[in-house]
Amino acid sequence: MASDLRACARDARRIVVKVGSGVLSGRAQGLDAAVIARLAREVAQARAAGREVLIVSSGAILAGRQRLKLSGRPSIELKQAAAAVGQSRLMRTWEAALARSRLTAAQVLLTSDDLKDRERYLNARNTLLTLLGLGVVPVVNENDTVAVEEIKFGDNDGLSALVAGLVDARLLVLLTDQPGIFTADPRKDPSARRIAAFAPGEAPPALGAAGPLGTGGMASKARAAAQAAAGGIAAVIADGTVPGTLSAVLAGEEAGTFFAPAERPPAKRRQWLAFAARPKGRILVDAGARAALVERGKSLLPTGVKGASGTFERGDPVGLYEGGREFARGLTNFSSADLARIKGLKTSQIEAVLGSKPADEVVHRDNLAVNAA
Fold first, then answer.
1. How far is CA 180 from the centre of its chain?
2. Where are the domains of the chain?
């Protein structure tokens, strides 16, 4: 598996580097400019080697809490206020650090609403690719100032995986304050050992919660790495508190935990459906329809539909459920109102009921993403 890491690192010309709050704090309670300066130098080395680098950086709330002298566990409103104060401080620190290596930084703030909508998703992609084409280093962060529970990514780990897929990156490096994924919590179990690599599709073990400064925790990083790998993007979780870790990963050296990419990832549209799109409603199907979709790659027909919930229009993303569990997502060809009238019918009966037949399929297989098992 180490040879796979070397090959992935050698071939990766476009890289997303996610830096967590536990790294940026330098294990203190505030933003450590020296850590950002050191990481900026490693990014500059990668750029000098002909690579394109995007940074997904936490730390706005951390910097704001430091400036406002907040302690304890602040409310969501205080976190948003801290982000408003801290985001400019965070960006100024990155900008100054990259400028010392003659690199230009660009601030990009996102919420999940920006990526769940297909048009805005493509707009974000075009902006990031244009910045890379200009030789700029995008510094991406969740827009914590306006994000609330209903629209926030929840952590920058998930955001980094989405951004990696958004720009067709070949490698995602998640820098944290731990050496990688272990068989157990090394802080509690001295016999725990680091897992060097996961094969394509291999699931990581159950993992613990976030640290005192972060929001994601190792479980969130593992999910992000696995998501990227499922999309054909190699991923590494490594200790960003150790100088030279990013350079070591890009040199193909064994550092942290490596997630091997899928050999046959789904098409980009299906990746958006699976990972970024937010379903507007649910379509309930029978066991036969589920088997046809999952096992035989068929489209969903009205005859297999048992019901629907939520309000959605033609073209909206929906979740497909059988037995109370979501097994796929897709773009519907019928509104929830029309689907309620044609559920269980044969395709030949659609026009007689609706007065027209916009499609034979409720969800066409080309607009369907089956969830990983």
1. 18
2. 2-266, 279-370
